[in-house]
Design brief:
This protein has about 220 residues and is α+β, with helices and mostly antiparallel strands. About 55% of the residues lie in helices and about 10% in strands. The protein is built from nine helices and four strands, in the order E-H-E-H-E-E-H-H-H-H-H-H-H. It has a four-stranded mixed β-sheet. Bound molecules: glutathione (GSH). Glutathione binds near residues 12, 43, 58 and 72.
Length: about 220
């Protein structure tokens, strides 16, 4: 089977969950990182310069043989099943993991809608207000859900949900988003524990040293 993941050259959670899942499972795939220009033109015509089809003109896309699979959740589950980071025979656990991928999507969309629909130019005070009054509420609800679930609190468990949490909180707390605080993860104890747990895995350390740029900004978890 031939596998290719198409995304731009950033460690954004949407691409990192499928990328890292396949890496964890030592499953061969082509990690295709297109340029911003290529992405912008593919948004217009649905194809990258090298001819890969993006059905919804969005990325990430996972190409399985010649089939272009879209949507972060679908791709993450597919790669998670191949690599053992998503259950194949436990429907409840699978659904619990799905919820986490979906809340990560919700948080991402909240912020992108804020940027597209509310923000006219970047205002740090307004961003901080949005963070405190909108995004942090979601984060606290997520923290509460994780805190009350023994599976997610298990230091030995690892699934696509952990990778998604690690990377999205890594991004939110990195300082790369203007106006967002960087010192909030430590207030969210279970989320903090998951982020620290993921970073301790050797395959994650290896992935970071292999693929992250030297100026990569780590999340602020402590
Ligand atoms: N529903 C899609 C959304 C993916 C998405 O919004 N990707 C962004 C890049 S991170 C994108 O392609 N944006 C361009 C657009 O929507 O036109 C998913 O879950 O994968």
């Amino acid at each position: 089977m031939s596998l290719k993941i198409i995304y731009v050259d950033t460690p954004f959670w949407r691409a990192e969950v499928p990328r890292l899942s396949l890496f964890y499972g030592t499953i061969d795939y082509e990690d295709i990182r297109i340029s911003r220009e290529d992405f912008l033109s593919a948004k217009k015509n649905g194809f990258t310069q090298s001819g890969h089809y993006l059905p919804f003109r969005q990325i990430p896309v996972l190409i399985i043989n010649n089939y272009s699979l879209t949507q972060t959740g679908a791709m993450s589950r597919y790669c998670g099943k191949l690599s053992g980071l998503y259950p194949k025979n436990d429907d409840l656990l699978a659904a619990k993991i799905d919820q986490i991928i979906d809340i990560c999507t919700d948080m991402t969309v909240l912020f992108s809608n804020y940027r597209k629909n509310i923000e006219t130019n970047i205002n740090h005070n307004k961003r901080k207000e949005f963070f405190d009054n909108v995004l942090m509420n979601k984060m606290k609800l997520l923290e509460n859900m994780l805190l009350n679930d023994n599976y997610f609190k298990d230091l030995n468990s690892l699934s696509i949900a952990d990778i998604a949490i690690w990377r999205i909180f890594g991004w939110f707390s990195s300082g790369l988003i203007e106006g967002f605080p960087t010192n909030f993860v430590k207030q969210l104890k279970t989320i903090q524990m998951i982020c620290l747990k993921v970073e301790k895995f050797d395959f994650v350390k290896e992935w970071i040293s292999k693929t992250y740029h030297p100026d990569y900004v780590r999340g602020n978890y402590i």
